[in-house]
């Protein structure tokens, strides 16, 4: 059995995620689409304390770029939105790979959809008809959107129907405006060559998604491979075992890691790594928190929902990748009114050189501030890296 060090696995992981490649001097649409293809999936998130996560993940790989390139990719149908990790953008050519899940939701409607069909016959069909006649639309554009059932995810009936049409592949997200989804019939969003291609059967799709996860993680546990595309763990374990038995995945040992591990046979391990990036909480490099701790010796939890007095590191904290290590973390906030990138806290991992880390982190912070159109960086006093970072920033 092949034996690897954690450092080797980290280098392979970082390279597979596109974080080791030189950033383009002038970014165009192709760079954005290729970056999403490399990751396989780009998670969408609404938090905008710095910038939305989908834009931040691309910034980590491409550097300062025009955020409208992502929306161009959506408008020009190079990508589409679906629940591929959480809410995510994926390459449009992957539409047939997700059809099995769409067909399942079409056949087994959500409970609220079944209730509406009993309580308000014709309502579901009316929502679809309005979308077909007027789309792209939001729930508020419907003749009878219904009342919200509560805060946050307390959807009104119209929103329930549009979301079910979306998840079942009868509708698609044509665009987003101010983060709001605009739904349209799938025939006007997904190009015919992908929409009409045969659906990949569920079992084949699961195998393909596990293999794609392995490409992007290089070495992982079965649970980690399942998490990448949010596959059911019991089925994923069965498929991973089958792939390993057939030689499509290779079992490996990693020093200090006791769980069974599987490697993509085409995974490459760079001899050295010169990566440098601030990675947001929804970046695939840190999605699977158990793996982040095991592989990078970096305990990371998002503290958005933790009461402020109880937060350890801050509200929106970015791990800092340098070389093949996560060497620190920094709490960030874009103060657009004052034109300042605020750094309430900066923290150094044990054993790291504060001068080196502060110098390299400051370079990334200046790049981020420039990209966000902010003219100043203001470093607070919280954290064991704050003093060194103030001197550099």
Structure description:
A hairpin with a 2-residue loop joins strand 11 (317-322) and strand 12 (325-335). It is built from 15 helices and 14 strands. The chain has 393 residues and is of the alpha+beta class. It has a five-stranded mixed sheet with strand order 10-11-12-13-14, with helices on one face. A four-stranded mixed sheet has the order 1-8-9-7. It has a three-stranded antiparallel sheet with strand order 2-4-3. Helix 5 (95-107) packs across helix 10 (202-217). The model has no long low-confidence stretch (mean pLDDT 94). It has helices spanning 6-16, 29-39, 53-62, 68-75, 95-107, 111-119, 123-134, 157-167, 192-195, 202-217, 222-228, 233-245, 289-296, 354-372, 386-392, and strands spanning 2-4, 42-43, 79-83, 87-91, 171-177, 180-185, 219-220, 250-254, 257-263, 276-278, 317-322, 325-335, 340-348, 376-382.
Output the structural class: alpha+beta
Tell me the strand percentage band. 15-25%
Estimate the helix proportion, in percent: 40-55%
Tell me the major beta sheet: 5 strands, mixed
H/E element string?
Answer: EHHEHHEEHHHHEEHHEHHEEEHEEEHEH
Number of discrete helical segments: 15
Mean of the pLDDT scores? 94
Strands, count = 14
Spatial order of the strands forming the largest sheet: 10-11-12-13-14
Q: Which value, in Å, is the CA radius of gyration?
A: 22 Å
Low-confidence stretches: none
- The global form is globular
End-to-end gap: 47 Å
């Amino acid at each position: 059995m092949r034996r690897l060090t954690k450092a080797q696995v980290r280098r392979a992981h970082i390279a597979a995620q596109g974080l080791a490649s030189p950033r383009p001097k002038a970014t165009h649409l192709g760079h954005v689409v290729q970056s999403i293809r490399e990751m396989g999936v780009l998670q969408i998130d609404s938090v905008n304390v710095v910038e939305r996560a989908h834009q931040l993940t691309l910034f980590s790989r491409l550097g300062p770029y025009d955020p409208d390139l992502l929306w161009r990719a959506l408008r020009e149908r190079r990508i589409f939105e679906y629940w591929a990790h959480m809410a995510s953008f994926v390459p449009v050519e992957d539409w047939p790979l997700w059809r099995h899940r769409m067909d399942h939701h079409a056949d087994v409607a959500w409970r609220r959809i079944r209730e509406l069909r009993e309580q308000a016959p014709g309502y579901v069909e009316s929502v679809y008809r309005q979308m077909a006649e007027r789309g792209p639309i939001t729930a508020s554009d419907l003749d009878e959107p219904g009342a919200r059932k509560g805060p946050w995810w307390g959807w009104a009936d119209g929103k329930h129907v549009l979301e079910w049409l979306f998840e079942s592949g009868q509708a698609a997200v044509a665009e987003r405006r101010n983060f709001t989804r605009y739904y349209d019939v799938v025939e006007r969003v997904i190009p015919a060559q992908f929409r009409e291609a045969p659906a990949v059967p569920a079992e084949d799709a699961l195998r393909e998604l596990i293999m794609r996860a392995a490409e992007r993680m290089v070495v992982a546990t079965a649970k980690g491979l399942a998490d990448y595309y949010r596959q059911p763990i019991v089925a994923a374990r069965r498929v991973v075992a089958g792939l390993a038995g057939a030689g499509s995945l290779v079992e490996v040992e990693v020093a200090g890691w006791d769980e069974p591990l599987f490697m993509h046979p085409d995974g490459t391990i760079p001899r050295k790594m010169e990566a440098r990036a601030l990675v947001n909480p929804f970046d695939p490099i840190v999605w699977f928190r158990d793996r982040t701790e095991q592989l990078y010796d970096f305990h990371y939890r998002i503290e958005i929902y933790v009461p402020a007095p109880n937060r350890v590191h801050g509200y929106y904290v970015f791990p800092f990748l340098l070389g093949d290590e996560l060497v620190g973390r920094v709490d960030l906030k874009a103060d657009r009114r004052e034109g300042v990138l605020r750094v309430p806290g900066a923290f150094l991992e044990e054993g790291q050189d504060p001068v080196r880390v502060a110098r390299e982190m400051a370079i990334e912070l200046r790049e981020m501030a420039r990209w966000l159109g902010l003219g100043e960086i203001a470093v607070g006093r919280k954290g064991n890296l704050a003093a060194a970072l103030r001197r550099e920033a």
